[in-house]
Design brief:
Number of domains: 2
Shape: globular
Radius of gyration: 23 Å
CATH class of the largest domain: Mainly Beta
Helix content: under 10%
């Protein structure tokens, strides 16, 4: 069977489930064809859709299940799972007209091969400081709100990066319909498209030292500095033969930019210098703190610098890395095949796999602190961690029709309660 669960409404199965419950005292689960869980979703709320995240076998897979209008809970769903023995946890979010109305998380459920286990979750509704109460009465993660995009099929160019200062934010994108940049000055309530500069094509990343000191990087060596509708192109020693993908700095006069061909540019008084990094690696992201700077890229490349020279560190993976970020003395890097690596700054990188789906490419990571992290990527995946090595998938309300195309490319926040992620089809989500 497939490694991804399939959820199906099972109204007739509810009667069989009652029989299963009667047998539960005598057998771990009711013997039925296949392997899975008969999940009953109950609660004093009305829903028209359930978003269910099944976490099992070090994977987190999300599915949306439409509930016919007028149907009242409980609803029984059959979650078909791989023919194997493991424990599965269900994170269930109820939605009505696109709004989150209830949430619950099941305890770990033991699944035996070729048996159907039974479980019930009860959706809690009531608001609590903008969040929701789950079935256990704890505050759940605030829901994500769709600000832009989310259409099927996808419309608009893919958004590639996001950065902001307060209510002013910039999102870079591939060039389409004469636009490669979106800007908002009201926290994302309205986004305005523009062409950053007449000669620019695809923009791949953005970072700023302030609302008036923003840097945009893109294909063909494009590096722009400015804000709003005023942008100045920089001439760099990298030339136009490289694509630039990531930018980060400590101030407007101390900025690092990375790109293809192991390109690392550093701003200095009067311009940019090309720093030495041997090889032809495509570098995708750069980040630093306390005089230590890290760049990550293809083939599991991690480079480290404390000045003008760069040295490789052993990542332990050959998967391409796309994002790097850190806080509190820890650094994380993310990439293809659900790669999450963590280092304490000693040059040693350790994988984190708990709750991370190995089939999902991760494109970006950001956190409000070392105890509040977000990683985003393919199949509209948003993972959150408390910095304890465990990651939990969050419901987005977006349907996955193509796991590769339905992809978040970047995540950024002003604070723990003001987080944005952007991706394909000009999709922008905001939490809360």
């Amino acid at each position: 069977m497939s490694r991804a669960p399939a959820f199906a409404r099972a109204p007739a199965f509810a009667r069989a489930l009652a029989a299963c419950a009667a047998l539960a005292a005598f057998a771990p689960a009711c013997s039925q064809p296949g392997t899975g869980v008969a999940l009953t979703v109950d609660g004093a709320v009305t829903v028209d859709k359930l978003t269910i995240i099944a976490t099992y076998d070090q994977r987190s897979v999300s599915r949306d299940v439409a509930i016919p209008a007028g149907t009242k809970l409980p609803a029984t769903l059959l979650a078909e799972l791989p023919d194997d023995a493991f424990k599965v946890t269900f994170d269930v979010t109820g939605l009505l007209a696109g709004k989150v109305v209830g949430h619950a998380v099941s305890p770990p459920i033991g699944v035996e091969a070729h048996r159907i286990a039974a479980a019930t979750v009860t959706l809690g509704g009531a608001a609590l400081d903008g969040g929701l109460l789950d079935g256990a009465g704890d505050a759940a993660t605030p829901p994500w709100t769709l600000q832009l995009g989310g259409s099927t099929p996808l419309q608009g160019a893919a958004l590639t990066g996001i950065w902001g200062a307060g209510a002013t934010l910039y999102a870079t994108s591939a060039l389409a319909s004469g636009s490669n940049l979106l800007r908002t000055t009201d926290g994302g309530q309205h986004w305005t498209p523009s062409l950053a500069a007449a000669s620019t094509g695809n923009l791949n990343g953005v970072w700023g030292a302030g609302a008036a000191d923003v840097f945009l990087v893109g294909d063909a060596g494009v590096l722009l500095h400015g804000s709003a509708a005023t942008w100045t192109a920089s001439t760099t020693p990298a030339g136009s033969a490289v694509n630039l993908y990531g930018a980060w700095g400590t101030s407007a006069t101390d900025v690092y930019v990375v790109g293809s061909g192991n390109t690392i540019l550093h701003s200095v008084t009067g311009g940019w210098v090309l720093q030495t990094a041997v090889g032809t690696t495509v570098l995708r992201a750069v980040w630093g703190a306390g005089g230590h700077v890290y760049a990550v890229g293809s083939g599991g490349t991690i480079l480290h610098s404390t000045g003008s020279t760069w040295a490789p560190q052993t990542s332990g993976t050959s998967h391409d890395l796309y994002g790097v970020w850190g806080a509190g003395g820890s650094i994380w890097a993310v990439g293809d095949a659900g790669t999450v690596l963590r280092s304490s700054g000693d040059g040693t990188w350790t994988p984190e796999t708990n709750g991370v789906p190995s089939s999902i490419p991760l494109a970006s990571i950001w956190g409000s602190s070392a105890g509040d992290l977000y990683a985003v990527g393919g199949a509209w995946t948003i993972l959150r961690s408390a910095g304890d090595g465990t990651w939990t998938a969050q419901p987005t309300g977006l349907s996955v029709t193509d796991a590769a195309a339905d992809r978040f490319n970047a995540v950024f926040g002003n604070s723990a309660t003001d987080v944005f992620t952007v991706g394909a089809g000009q999709t922008i989500l905001h939490s809360p």
